[in-house]
Amino acid sequence: MKSGPQPELQPQPPPPNTTLARAWLPWVAAFAAALLLAAAWFVWHSASARPMLKYTRLTYQQGYISNARFARDGQTVVYSAQWNNDPLQIFTVRKEFPQSSKVDLPSAVLLALSPSGPMEIDVDPVYNAWFVTGTMAEAQMVGGTPRAQEKNVLAADYAPDGITLALVHEIDRKVQLEYPAGKVLYTGSGYMDYLRVSHSGKEVAFLEHPIYGDDRGWVSVVDDAGHHRQLTQEFSTVQGLAWSAKGNEIWFTASDMGADRQIYAVTLAGKVRSVLTNPLGTRILDIAPDGRVLLLNERQQSDIAGIDPATGKERRGLEWFDGSAIADITPDGKAITFLEWGGPAGPLYIDGYRKMDGSAPVALGPGGGGKFSPDGAIVATELPSRPPQVALNPVGAGESRRLSLGDITNLRVGLAWFPDGKHLLLTGAPEGQPTRTFVMDTEGGKPQALGPAGFLGVAVAGDGNRVAGRNAAEEYVVFDRQTEKVQTISGIQPQDQIQRWTDDGQALIVYSTTAWAAHVYRVEVATGKRTLLQTIELSEKTGSRMQIRLAYAERSKTYAYSTTRDLGILYVVEGLQ
Question: In a 10 Å sphere around its CB, with 0-12 CB exposed, 13-18 middle and 19+ buried, how is residue 462 labelled?
Fold first, then answer.
């Protein structure tokens, strides 16, 4: 027996009234059952009140659909598409029997359809990554010869009167929104597309992309007095936009991760809600007055292939997820960097690296479009952050670093290293200023302007003094940092792109690409002599709409290239709310 002081005895509470508790049990159970029944009724009633979605398929061919609109009769749909291996054409189709008919017009992209009959198209369309520019022309549904109006138009829409036009126009390397045509309401730092005039005719909604050549961005609106507002967050991809049937919301398709866009709606007050989520990528193209939606389901497929210098044979399957694009290749052709925006890539994308022997890819860090340093140890890449930055991602061991760009708010895609491995060439602009060239110390410091105003440099010679690029008149030139003189290069054509200087410093490697073919040339700077080095032609052209991206290794005479194919099916969807 334990010894010591005993605890003090406490008075015990009276036993509970179990009879009273048992009397309340049936009432509690009945109340809970009533709550369950009410909840079940609410769920059933909500589900039954929500209309079932009805999908009517309009297209059955294989290829890429760029745009579509409901015609004024409400039953005919006009769209532009590239079917099989044919160029882009304008078609019509009706819901009751989905047999598409080609409109007798030249190759073109549909821009807008007037309630009074005519339509606006882009003839001689040129793809620039995610958007198309061309000569805007008025055409008739019966075909014929279009009437040219404006050059370098990205998007257009008719006001409710069926006559007044809003358009996105690129002039002097600036993209501006005009409404009516000729009256500038807004100038962006990147580019704009998918603009639509409101039912009242007083506002224009559009997609704003802060980086020229990238489809990340947000929904904006500007009124007829020029007051601009950003309505949504920034998405990693946003394409497709239309005013709702009531005109109180703007519907758009976007995603904040990966390439599969979903439908959202936003009010003019900036309130965003989800409209439709599904496992396929979508793009909204139009909404009829009765609420029917023209919706495109898209499957995007990217491929990277190239010549393995060890075998001399083409190796395919070098892509990673569903959004891979070649960026650079080592001089010996043994390794590549690439941009990955699909799959698990976040809002800043992935800077990918892999060897041409087919070994597994490696994520170097965030970013995309990375360029190898002269020693191949570091990859410099743009970061689509706000404000923009440059990331230095090591290929081997080490930590990534981010470089501030000072007051540069608009950074264009495309970096180049100086031969010392300590400086970078970049093009961009502070807010509201024209784009120009800068040189930046990788150890820090504010980027310094290089060359005359309007000069866009893209490649640095081995001597570190000569920089090749374009002047303000879009001519290919070489700027000499020592003499500060500019030399025009005669042998480079307007559609060419400069990749790099040759090892001997006497010529430039340039390439000319379309969605279906690529040609690589050596162009002598002094004489303009042009020598064909390589030709690449795609065997499968269906759905290929973006220009082939190419990287050429001079020493090994090998290359790697990437293609992107978009295969879409057009639907009329009823019941979306």
Answer: middle
Own/partner pairs, 395-398, CB within 8 angstroms, 24+ separation: 395/353, 395/364
Pairing of strands 335-340, 119-128: unpaired
pLDDT in tens, 43-98: 344 444 557 999 999 999 999 999 999 999 999 999 999 998 888 999 999 989 99
Cα–Cα distances in angstroms (integers) from residue 574 to residues 260, 275, 287, 289, 385, in the given order? 21, 13, 10, 12, 38
| Biggest alpha carbon–alpha carbon distance for the chain | 114
Closest of 80, 190, 122 to residue 428, by C-alpha? 190
Residue 552 identity: Y
- As a whole number of angstroms, the distance between CA 403 and CA 382 comes to 10
Q: Give 435-500 as a DSSP string.
A: -EEEEEETTS---EEESSTT-EEEEE-TTSSEEEEE-TTS-EEEEETTT--EEE-TT--TT-EEEE
H or E element: which one contains 284?
strand 281-287
Q: What is the DSSP letter of 415?
A: -
Can you give the pLDDT at residue 50?
59
